[in-house]
Design goal:
CATH class of one domain: Alpha Beta
Order of helices and strands: HHHHEHEHEEHEHHEHHE
Largest sheet: 7 strands, mixed
Shape: globular
CATH architecture of one domain: 3-Layer(aba) Sandwich
Helix content: 25-40%
Strand content: 15-25%
CATH topology of one domain: Rossmann fold
Strand order of the largest sheet: 3-2-1-4-5-7-6
Number of strands: 7
Structural class: alpha/beta
Number of helices: 11
């Protein structure tokens, strides 16, 4: 029997988290901890006999990247991504993978524009809308629930469509892309960052370990499939860029931020385990990215002046 391959060593940030749990690392500075939004600070220990306040992965992800941000990249990073839009108050933007709405609210605040957020997880969408209401952004950055497999958009409603991780778990991607271009105005802008796969490495165990932790089953395309689909729908593809290194850097920066602002040693054990589960998720993501079986790409394209033909109905 062939020997099992050795498990790659975890990234250094994970080692630092383990060190913090053992008490080997210094706690966060009072200044850094005080800078956290009040609603994101770890709750104090409850009085004796009272139940422990819940801690969920979404809260941990906001410790990593900021209030309302649940995938790698903070507000500064997102505003840099959408710079090609040259957004202004007259424009209408769609965030097709809004999460808790942090990116949508940041864009609305920075450019005084209206941005509609769609999120496929009903619980996350509900929490995101509540956050927009609390921030007074319910009109400029509403968050709605949608199913990407059945999504329909009003034709020509948006100047720009933005999405981070919007397509990798969509099963009928061609239909989804068609809906997006139909929702764009002629020469409207599409900006997507997403996971892609390498068919030659599809059997890698690192990829399977990453897929097992995803909330929706991934259906990875390669770069050629994306560009072929865009071109078949009349998109003018301007940028196809491998941003895997940037993405990994954002993961590590997020964990560095958590280690500087949260004293993990003082968290109740149940909360420590939630943090460790989240760390495992991102460790496995980085290992999959390092294997080459998984990458992250940025696509920027312009919608053609002509609309693509309606999709043919599938035979039953």
């Amino acid at each position: 029997m062939a020997a099992r391959p050795e498990t790659p060593a975890p990234p250094s940030f994970f080692s630092r988290i383990l060190a913090r749990l053992r008490g080997d690392a210094a706690p966060p500075s009072p200044t850094a901890a005080a800078a956290m939004p009040l609603d994101l600070k770890p709750p104090p220990a409850p009085p004796a006999g009272e139940a422990l306040p819940a801690l969920d992965p979404l809260t941990v992800r906001q410790w990593l990247w900021g209030s309302g941000f649940v995938v790698p990249g903070n507000a500064e990073y997102v505003l840099g991504l959408v710079k090609p839009f040259a957004a202004n108050p007259a424009m209408s933007i769609l965030d097709i993978a809004a999460g808790l709405g942090g990116p949508a609210r940041a864009i609305a605040e920075a450019f005084e524009t209206y941005i509609t957020g769609f999120e496929r997880d009903p619980e996350i969408a509900g929490r995101g809308m509540a956050m927009s209401v609390a921030a007074g952004k319910q009109r400029h950055a509403p968050i709605n629930v949608m199913n990407p497999e059945t999504l329909e958009l009003k034709p020509g409603a948006f100047d720009c469509v933005f999405g981070r991780g919007a397509t990798y778990a969509v099963q009928d991607k061609e239909r989804f892309m068609r809906v997006l271009i139909m929702g764009l105005k002629p020469r409207g802008q599409l900006l997507l960052t997403d996971y892609i796969g390498d068919p030659a490495l599809a059997a890698r165990p690192e990829l399977a370990a990453w897929q097992a932790l995803e909330p929706f089953p991934p259906n990875l395309w390669n770069v050629q499939q994306y560009t072929d689909c865009f071109k078949s729908l009349g998109f003018d593809v301007r940028i196809t860029e491998d941003i895997t290194a940037q993405y990994k850097a954002q993961i590590v920066l997020g964990w560095d931020n958590l280690l500087q602002t949260v004293d993990i040693r003082k968290l109740p054990r149940a909360h420590q385990l939630i943090v460790l589960d989240e760390a495992e998720r991102w460790v496995k993501t980085i290992i999959a990215l390092d294997s080459g079986a998984l990458k992250v790409f940025r696509f920027y394209a312009l919608a053609g002046a002509a609309r693509p033909p309606a999709a043919a109905k599938k035979k039953k």
